[in-house]
Amino acid sequence: MQKRIGRNDPCWCGSGKKYKDCHLEMDEKIKSYKLRGYKIPPRKIIKNKEQIDGIRTSGKVNIAVLDYVAENIHAGMSTEEINQLVDSKTRELGGIPAPLNYEGFPKSVCTSINDAVCHGIPSEEEILQDGDIINVDVSTIYKGYFSDSSRMFCIGNVPDESRKLVEDTLEAIQVGLAEVRPFNRLGNVGAAIHEFALSKGYQVVKEIGGHGVGLEFHEDPFVSYVTRRDTGMLLVPGMVFTIEPMINLGTDEIFIDEENDWTVYTEDGAPSAQWEVSVAVTEDGYEILAY
Protein backbone atom coordinates (compact mmCIF):
# COMPACT_ATOMS: atom_id res chain seq x y z
CA MET A 1 0.00 0.00 0.00
CA GLN A 2 1.39 3.39 -1.05
CA LYS A 3 2.03 5.87 1.74
CA ARG A 4 -0.16 8.95 1.50
CA ILE A 5 1.82 12.03 0.47
CA GLY A 6 0.96 15.48 1.77
CA ARG A 7 0.59 18.38 -0.65
CA ASN A 8 3.74 20.03 0.70
CA ASP A 9 5.79 16.84 0.95
CA PRO A 10 8.54 16.10 -1.58
CA CYS A 11 7.07 14.46 -4.68
CA TRP A 12 7.43 10.69 -4.93
CA CYS A 13 9.16 11.01 -8.34
CA GLY A 14 12.38 12.37 -6.84
CA SER A 15 12.22 15.73 -8.60
CA GLY A 16 12.77 17.62 -5.33
CA LYS A 17 9.61 19.65 -5.90
CA LYS A 18 6.63 19.76 -3.55
CA TYR A 19 4.01 17.16 -4.44
CA LYS A 20 1.40 19.86 -5.15
CA ASP A 21 3.75 21.47 -7.69
CA CYS A 22 4.73 18.22 -9.37
CA HIS A 23 2.61 15.07 -9.71
CA LEU A 24 -0.46 15.82 -7.58
CA GLU A 25 -2.67 16.94 -10.46
CA MET A 26 -1.59 14.06 -12.68
CA ASP A 27 -2.10 11.53 -9.88
CA GLU A 28 -5.64 12.73 -9.37
CA LYS A 29 -6.34 12.31 -13.07
CA ILE A 30 -4.78 8.83 -13.07
CA LYS A 31 -6.94 7.91 -10.07
CA SER A 32 -10.06 8.87 -12.03
CA TYR A 33 -9.05 6.40 -14.75
CA LYS A 34 -8.31 3.71 -12.18
CA LEU A 35 -11.82 4.07 -10.78
CA ARG A 36 -13.10 3.40 -14.32
CA GLY A 37 -11.21 0.10 -14.47
CA TYR A 38 -8.10 1.13 -16.40
CA LYS A 39 -4.75 -0.58 -15.78
CA ILE A 40 -2.54 2.06 -14.18
CA PRO A 41 1.27 2.28 -14.57
CA PRO A 42 3.24 1.75 -11.35
CA ARG A 43 5.07 4.85 -10.15
CA LYS A 44 8.46 3.13 -10.50
CA ILE A 45 8.24 3.27 -14.31
CA ILE A 46 7.31 6.98 -14.48
CA LYS A 47 10.46 9.04 -14.99
CA ASN A 48 11.09 12.58 -13.80
CA LYS A 49 12.73 15.31 -15.90
CA GLU A 50 16.26 14.53 -14.70
CA GLN A 51 15.83 10.87 -15.62
CA ILE A 52 14.34 11.69 -19.03
CA ASP A 53 17.31 14.00 -19.66
CA GLY A 54 19.68 11.16 -18.79
CA ILE A 55 17.92 8.69 -21.07
CA ARG A 56 17.91 11.28 -23.87
CA THR A 57 21.68 11.74 -23.54
CA SER A 58 22.19 7.97 -23.58
CA GLY A 59 19.99 7.88 -26.68
CA LYS A 60 22.27 10.37 -28.44
CA VAL A 61 25.16 7.94 -27.95
CA ASN A 62 23.00 5.08 -29.21
CA ILE A 63 22.05 7.08 -32.31
CA ALA A 64 25.69 8.01 -32.99
CA VAL A 65 26.69 4.34 -32.82
CA LEU A 66 23.99 3.34 -35.30
CA ASP A 67 25.03 6.21 -37.57
CA TYR A 68 28.58 4.83 -37.43
CA VAL A 69 27.31 1.38 -38.41
CA ALA A 70 25.37 2.94 -41.30
CA GLU A 71 28.55 4.58 -42.58
CA ASN A 72 30.53 1.35 -42.54
CA ILE A 73 28.22 -1.60 -43.18
CA HIS A 74 28.76 -3.38 -46.51
CA ALA A 75 28.64 -6.71 -48.29
CA GLY A 76 31.60 -8.92 -47.48
CA MET A 77 31.99 -7.88 -43.86
CA SER A 78 31.29 -10.28 -41.01
CA THR A 79 28.73 -9.62 -38.32
CA GLU A 80 31.63 -9.85 -35.85
CA GLU A 81 33.10 -6.78 -37.56
CA ILE A 82 29.79 -5.00 -36.86
CA ASN A 83 30.11 -6.09 -33.23
CA GLN A 84 33.60 -4.60 -33.05
CA LEU A 85 32.42 -1.34 -34.62
CA VAL A 86 29.62 -1.04 -32.08
CA ASP A 87 31.78 -1.94 -29.09
CA SER A 88 34.60 0.43 -29.97
CA LYS A 89 32.37 3.38 -30.90
CA THR A 90 30.19 3.00 -27.82
CA ARG A 91 33.23 3.03 -25.54
CA GLU A 92 34.84 5.89 -27.45
CA LEU A 93 31.72 7.96 -26.71
CA GLY A 94 31.84 7.05 -23.01
CA GLY A 95 29.13 4.41 -23.03
CA ILE A 96 28.90 0.71 -22.26
CA PRO A 97 27.25 -1.77 -24.66
CA ALA A 98 24.19 -2.96 -22.71
CA PRO A 99 23.81 -6.37 -24.43
CA LEU A 100 27.31 -7.59 -23.52
CA ASN A 101 26.95 -10.31 -20.83
CA TYR A 102 23.28 -9.43 -20.33
CA GLU A 103 21.79 -12.72 -19.12
CA GLY A 104 24.75 -14.42 -20.78
CA PHE A 105 24.54 -12.75 -24.20
CA PRO A 106 28.14 -12.90 -25.49
CA LYS A 107 28.38 -9.84 -27.76
CA SER A 108 27.88 -6.07 -27.73
CA VAL A 109 25.13 -5.94 -30.37
CA CYS A 110 22.46 -8.14 -31.97
CA THR A 111 22.76 -8.74 -35.72
CA SER A 112 19.80 -10.53 -37.31
CA ILE A 113 19.95 -11.39 -41.02
CA ASN A 114 17.03 -12.28 -43.34
CA ASP A 115 14.96 -14.96 -41.54
CA ALA A 116 16.53 -14.16 -38.14
CA VAL A 117 13.80 -12.30 -36.27
CA CYS A 118 15.98 -10.98 -33.43
CA HIS A 119 18.87 -11.69 -31.03
CA GLY A 120 21.31 -12.75 -33.72
CA ILE A 121 24.80 -13.31 -32.28
CA PRO A 122 27.65 -11.74 -34.29
CA SER A 123 30.13 -14.22 -35.75
CA GLU A 124 33.31 -14.15 -37.82
CA GLU A 125 31.77 -16.88 -39.99
CA GLU A 126 28.60 -14.92 -40.80
CA ILE A 127 29.35 -12.75 -43.84
CA LEU A 128 26.97 -10.17 -45.30
CA GLN A 129 25.95 -11.04 -48.84
CA ASP A 130 24.51 -8.94 -51.65
CA GLY A 131 20.71 -9.08 -51.24
CA ASP A 132 20.67 -9.53 -47.45
CA ILE A 133 18.56 -7.50 -45.06
CA ILE A 134 19.93 -7.13 -41.54
CA ASN A 135 18.70 -5.68 -38.28
CA VAL A 136 21.38 -4.09 -36.09
CA ASP A 137 20.07 -3.68 -32.55
CA VAL A 138 22.16 -1.31 -30.40
CA SER A 139 21.62 -0.67 -26.70
CA THR A 140 23.72 1.69 -24.59
CA ILE A 141 24.37 2.40 -20.93
CA TYR A 142 25.57 5.98 -20.45
CA LYS A 143 26.08 7.38 -16.96
CA GLY A 144 23.68 4.78 -15.62
CA TYR A 145 20.89 5.40 -18.13
CA PHE A 146 19.78 2.89 -20.77
CA SER A 147 18.75 3.52 -24.37
CA ASP A 148 17.74 1.05 -27.05
CA SER A 149 17.06 1.29 -30.80
CA SER A 150 17.64 -0.67 -33.98
CA ARG A 151 17.68 -0.16 -37.73
CA MET A 152 17.34 -2.28 -40.81
CA PHE A 153 19.99 -2.18 -43.52
CA CYS A 154 19.57 -3.39 -47.10
CA ILE A 155 22.81 -4.83 -48.49
CA GLY A 156 23.25 -4.29 -52.22
CA ASN A 157 20.56 -5.55 -54.58
CA VAL A 158 17.82 -6.64 -52.21
CA PRO A 159 14.77 -8.46 -53.66
CA ASP A 160 11.77 -6.16 -54.05
CA GLU A 161 9.58 -8.04 -51.55
CA SER A 162 12.28 -7.88 -48.86
CA ARG A 163 12.96 -4.20 -49.49
CA LYS A 164 9.24 -3.43 -49.28
CA LEU A 165 9.01 -5.40 -46.03
CA VAL A 166 11.79 -3.23 -44.58
CA GLU A 167 10.10 -0.01 -45.73
CA ASP A 168 6.66 -1.06 -44.52
CA THR A 169 8.02 -2.08 -41.12
CA LEU A 170 9.50 1.40 -40.72
CA GLU A 171 6.10 2.86 -41.63
CA ALA A 172 4.54 0.61 -38.97
CA ILE A 173 6.67 2.41 -36.38
CA GLN A 174 5.12 5.72 -37.44
CA VAL A 175 1.64 4.20 -37.26
CA GLY A 176 2.36 3.09 -33.70
CA LEU A 177 3.84 6.43 -32.68
CA ALA A 178 0.65 8.18 -33.79
CA GLU A 179 -1.09 6.43 -30.88
CA VAL A 180 1.41 7.57 -28.22
CA ARG A 181 -0.14 10.37 -26.19
CA PRO A 182 -1.18 10.92 -22.57
CA PHE A 183 -4.22 8.97 -21.39
CA ASN A 184 -4.47 6.84 -24.48
CA ARG A 185 -3.99 3.09 -23.90
CA LEU A 186 -0.95 1.01 -24.73
CA GLY A 187 -3.07 -1.58 -26.53
CA ASN A 188 -3.91 0.99 -29.18
CA VAL A 189 -0.23 1.24 -30.14
CA GLY A 190 -0.01 -2.49 -30.80
CA ALA A 191 -3.43 -2.69 -32.42
CA ALA A 192 -2.60 0.07 -34.92
CA ILE A 193 0.65 -1.67 -35.88
CA HIS A 194 -1.05 -5.06 -36.18
CA GLU A 195 -3.86 -3.69 -38.32
CA PHE A 196 -1.36 -1.96 -40.59
CA ALA A 197 0.82 -5.06 -40.98
CA LEU A 198 -2.15 -7.28 -41.81
CA SER A 199 -3.35 -4.74 -44.39
CA LYS A 200 0.01 -5.16 -46.15
CA GLY A 201 -0.23 -8.96 -46.11
CA TYR A 202 2.30 -9.57 -43.31
CA GLN A 203 2.22 -11.35 -39.97
CA VAL A 204 3.41 -9.93 -36.64
CA VAL A 205 5.43 -11.93 -34.11
CA LYS A 206 3.26 -12.49 -31.02
CA GLU A 207 5.69 -13.84 -28.45
CA ILE A 208 8.25 -11.00 -28.46
CA GLY A 209 7.60 -7.29 -28.04
CA GLY A 210 8.85 -4.00 -26.75
CA HIS A 211 9.56 -3.00 -23.16
CA GLY A 212 10.07 -0.17 -20.77
CA VAL A 213 13.60 1.22 -20.72
CA GLY A 214 15.71 3.88 -19.08
CA LEU A 215 16.70 2.99 -15.53
CA GLU A 216 17.13 -0.66 -16.49
CA PHE A 217 17.65 -2.45 -19.81
CA HIS A 218 14.22 -4.06 -19.68
CA GLU A 219 11.41 -2.68 -17.53
CA ASP A 220 7.64 -2.83 -17.50
CA PRO A 221 5.47 -2.54 -19.49
CA PHE A 222 5.64 -5.34 -22.04
CA VAL A 223 4.64 -3.85 -25.40
CA SER A 224 2.75 -6.29 -27.60
CA TYR A 225 1.96 -5.63 -31.27
CA VAL A 226 -1.01 -7.96 -31.54
CA THR A 227 -3.26 -6.25 -28.99
CA ARG A 228 -6.88 -5.17 -29.27
CA ARG A 229 -7.91 -1.53 -29.23
CA ASP A 230 -8.91 0.13 -25.96
CA THR A 231 -7.00 -2.38 -23.86
CA GLY A 232 -3.76 -2.31 -21.91
CA MET A 233 -2.00 0.09 -19.61
CA LEU A 234 -2.86 3.77 -19.45
CA LEU A 235 -0.18 5.96 -21.05
CA VAL A 236 0.94 8.83 -18.83
CA PRO A 237 3.71 11.45 -19.11
CA GLY A 238 7.07 10.09 -17.98
CA MET A 239 6.63 6.58 -19.30
CA VAL A 240 9.49 5.45 -21.57
CA PHE A 241 9.28 2.32 -23.70
CA THR A 242 10.37 0.83 -27.00
CA ILE A 243 8.30 0.36 -30.12
CA GLU A 244 9.90 -2.50 -32.04
CA PRO A 245 7.50 -4.72 -34.00
CA MET A 246 8.91 -7.84 -35.65
CA ILE A 247 7.03 -8.22 -38.93
CA ASN A 248 7.32 -11.35 -41.08
CA LEU A 249 6.83 -11.82 -44.79
CA GLY A 250 5.46 -15.32 -44.14
CA THR A 251 4.14 -17.03 -41.05
CA ASP A 252 4.25 -15.49 -37.58
CA GLU A 253 5.54 -18.77 -36.15
CA ILE A 254 9.08 -18.69 -34.79
CA PHE A 255 11.68 -20.88 -33.09
CA ILE A 256 14.84 -20.33 -31.05
CA ASP A 257 18.18 -21.68 -32.26
CA GLU A 258 18.93 -24.70 -30.07
CA GLU A 259 22.70 -24.28 -30.42
CA ASN A 260 23.02 -20.76 -29.02
CA ASP A 261 19.65 -20.49 -27.20
CA TRP A 262 19.31 -16.87 -28.32
CA THR A 263 18.66 -16.29 -32.01
CA VAL A 264 15.01 -16.34 -33.04
CA TYR A 265 14.11 -17.44 -36.60
CA THR A 266 10.95 -17.56 -38.68
CA GLU A 267 9.56 -21.10 -38.82
CA ASP A 268 9.16 -21.02 -42.62
CA GLY A 269 12.48 -19.32 -43.41
CA ALA A 270 10.81 -16.20 -44.81
CA PRO A 271 12.38 -12.78 -44.13
CA SER A 272 11.59 -10.76 -41.03
CA ALA A 273 12.14 -7.04 -40.40
CA GLN A 274 12.30 -4.91 -37.27
CA TRP A 275 12.96 -1.27 -36.49
CA GLU A 276 13.09 0.01 -32.92
CA VAL A 277 12.71 3.39 -31.26
CA SER A 278 12.72 4.43 -27.60
CA VAL A 279 9.90 6.88 -26.93
CA ALA A 280 8.83 8.99 -23.95
CA VAL A 281 5.23 9.96 -23.33
CA THR A 282 5.12 13.76 -22.89
CA GLU A 283 2.46 16.19 -21.69
CA ASP A 284 1.10 16.60 -25.22
CA GLY A 285 2.30 13.56 -27.20
CA TYR A 286 5.66 11.86 -27.41
CA GLU A 287 9.39 12.38 -27.82
CA ILE A 288 11.66 9.89 -29.56
CA LEU A 289 14.75 9.43 -27.37
CA ALA A 290 16.59 6.90 -29.56
CA TYR A 291 16.00 5.80 -33.14
TrEMBL record:
Query: What does the cofactor section's free text say about binding?
Result: Binds 2 divalent metal cations per subunit. Has a high-affinity and a low affinity metal-binding site. The true nature of the physiological cofactor is under debate. The enzyme is active with cobalt, zinc, manganese or divalent iron ions. Most likely, methionine aminopeptidases function as mononuclear Fe(2+)-metalloproteases under physiological conditions, and the catalytically relevant metal-binding site has been assigned to the histidine-containing high-affinity site.
E.C. numbers: 3.4.11.18
Q: What is the lineage of its organism?
A: Bacteria, Bacillati, Bacillota, Clostridia, Lachnospirales
Where, in this chain's numbering, is a divalent metal cation 1 bound? 137, 148, 276
Tell me where on the tree of life, at the top rank, the source sits.
Answer: Bacteria
Recorded hits in NCBIfam families, A to Z, give: met_pdase_I (TIGR00500), PRK12318.1 (NF008970)
Instruction: Give any Pfam family that matches.
Output: Peptidase_M24
Q: Which reaction does it catalyse?
A: Release of N-terminal amino acids, preferentially methionine, from peptides and arylamides
Q: What is this protein called?
A: Methionine aminopeptidase
Q: Does the keyword Metal-binding apply?
A: yes
Q: Which CDD domains match?
A: MetAP1
Keywords for this protein = Aminopeptidase, Hydrolase, Metal-binding, Protease
Binding-site residues for a divalent metal cation 2, renumbered to this chain? 148, 211, 244, 276
N-terminal signal peptide = none
Describe the family membership recorded for this protein in Swiss-Prot or TrEMBL. Belongs to the peptidase M24A family. Methionine aminopeptidase type 1 subfamily.
What HAMAP family does this protein's entry cite?
MetAP_1
Known role: Removes the N-terminal methionine from nascent proteins. The N-terminal methionine is often cleaved when the second residue in the primary sequence is small and uncharged (Met-Ala-, Cys, Gly, Pro, Ser, Thr, or Val). Requires deformylation of the N(alpha)-formylated initiator methionine before it can be hydrolyzed.
InterPro entries, alphabetized: Creatinase/aminopeptidase-like, Pept_M24, Pept_M24_MAP, Pept_M24A_MAP1, SEC_C_motif
Reported cofactor(s): Co(2+); Zn(2+); Mn(2+); Fe(2+)
Q: How does it assemble?
A: Monomer.
Q: Which residue intervals define the domain Peptidase M24 in the entry?
A: 54-283
Which amino acids does the record list as binding substrate? Answer: 119, 218
SUPFAM superfamilies, per the entry? Creatinase/aminopeptidase, Sec-C motif
Single biological process term from Gene Ontology: proteolysis
| UniProt-recorded Gene Ontology molecular function terms | initiator methionyl aminopeptidase activity; metal ion binding; metalloaminopeptidase activity
